Structure to design on (289 residues):
């Protein structure tokens, strides 16, 4: 099925996390305004703000702000940045080896917009994790339960293959087995079917795009800069600066919660907002009138 992308399914998917965040926000407001009276009948009967009032985490596009990513034939487009002039960047996180509960808390409590691209062998801790960043403390600690907690914190869960192969070395059928198998597994374990695909190592070919289409994926999502241990940004551009619309790539690595805090502070100090990737993609991929 190839309908409902960036529309109904996304709103439904965000529901659980937004509700939790709405409850947290509501509690904080009550405590701030009425110390000691939070348990009074009037306070407890006050309506909670709905998900709609709270809005999605992260900046959403203003009218006319986002340029259109043109369709590339009938195959899913390959996207590495969002066409906008606004100082907004997007956070994405790959694989799923290190499953630090502190990171989920951070994302939930601070309502940080992030999109996760998970890979089966990392989530299930099959094999050896990426050694970058040192010794992991939480490798495979929660498995799919960890991914479900991310989903509940409002994080879209997207497709990053089963085994992390270099797809350029595989034929069409083998690529399709990786992509469709991952989407099926995520749907079963997390309850929502992915709409985005991130190719391992950024390696793909025409067969990857055909396979993505066959598996119901809307776009291949690359990146403009990677985030190293310590929250250091490794740019792929010579002037070493963030640019509007950049997509940053992080990994589920040791010290993730600490590195993430450093990174988010750095981005904000440079005057950038964190954007809601779904909302921006929806605007960028809109159909021509
Ligand atoms: Zn990866």
């Amino acid at each position: 099925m190839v309908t409902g992308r960036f529309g109904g399914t996304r709103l439904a998917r965000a529901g659980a996390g937004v509700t939790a965040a709405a409850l947290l926000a509501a509690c904080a407001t009550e405590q701030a305004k009425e110390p000691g009276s939070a348990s009074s009948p009037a306070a407890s009967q006050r309506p909670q703000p709905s998900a709609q009032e709270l809005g999605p985490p992260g900046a959403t596009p203003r009218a006319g702000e986002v340029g259109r990513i043109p369709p590339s034939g009938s195959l899913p487009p390959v996207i590495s940045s969002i066409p906008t002039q606004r100082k907004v960047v997007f956070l994405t996180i790959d694989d799923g080896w290190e499953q630090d509960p502190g990171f989920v808390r951070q994302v939930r409590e601070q309502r940080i917009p992030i999109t996760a691209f998970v890979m089966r062998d990392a989530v299930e801790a099959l094999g050896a994790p990426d050694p970058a960043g040192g010794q992991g403390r939480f490798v495979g600690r929660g498995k799919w339960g960890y991914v479900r907690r991310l989903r509940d914190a409002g994080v879209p869960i997207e497709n990053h293959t089963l085994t992390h192969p270099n797809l350029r070395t595989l034929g069409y059928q083998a690529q399709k087995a990786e992509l469709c198998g991952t989407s099926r597994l995520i749907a079963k374990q997390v309850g929502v079917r992915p709409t985005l695909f991130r190719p391992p190592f950024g390696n793909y070919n025409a067969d990857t795009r055909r396979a993505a289409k066959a598996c119901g994926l809307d776009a291949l999502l690359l990146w403009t800069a990677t985030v190293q241990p310590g929250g250091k940004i490794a740019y792929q551009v010579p002037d070493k600066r963030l640019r509007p619309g950049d997509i940053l790539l992080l990994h589920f690595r040791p010290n993730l919660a600490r590195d993430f805090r450093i990174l988010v502070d750095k981005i904000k100090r440079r005057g950038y907002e964190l954007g809601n990737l779904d909302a921006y993609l929806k605007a960028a991929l809109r159909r021509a009138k």
Q: What stands out?
A: Residues 8-33 form the longest helix (26 residues).
